[in-house]
């Protein structure tokens, strides 16, 4: 079940005076690794039955903009499933990006787990092949 975004983003996208473009445009391997890290942690922390990992990866958007005010990059992670956007003043290193994405996935996973107390979630209602339900 592919996740459907609430709108079709158009880049560059202006936000807070900065112009964001997909991280994947400049660093596709890093963007893919970060999306995978987020999806794996979010699923585990949220106690979700695993969807296709690509579906979970598609729930987020990673964009970046140069921030001349700070001399760093601004890394933006939007989770369309959670309805949350977070920003990070980023030095461009993979280690900082991983730390940011892991922290966001942990927070979002905790929020997803807490939401489960109110009933089934989107991923709970997705039919899975039998081998996924073990």
The gist of it:
By secondary structure, the protein is α+β, with helices and mostly antiparallel strands. Helices cover 37% and strands 23% of the residues. It has helices spanning 23-26, 28-45, 53-57, 94-115; strands at residues 13-15, 18-22, 60-67, 72-79, 84-90.
N→C terminal distance: 19 Å
Rounded mean pLDDT is: 82
Report helical residue fraction: 25-40%
* Count of extended strands: 5
Placed side by side, the strands forming the largest sheet appear as 1-2-3-4-5
> How does the major sheet shape up?
5 strands, antiparallel
Instruction: Give the SSE string.
Output: EEHHHEEEH
Strand-pairing-aware structural class: alpha+beta
* Poorly predicted ranges: 126-134
Number of helices: 4
Shape: elongated
Beta-strand content bin = 15-25%
Radius of gyration, whole Å:
15 Å
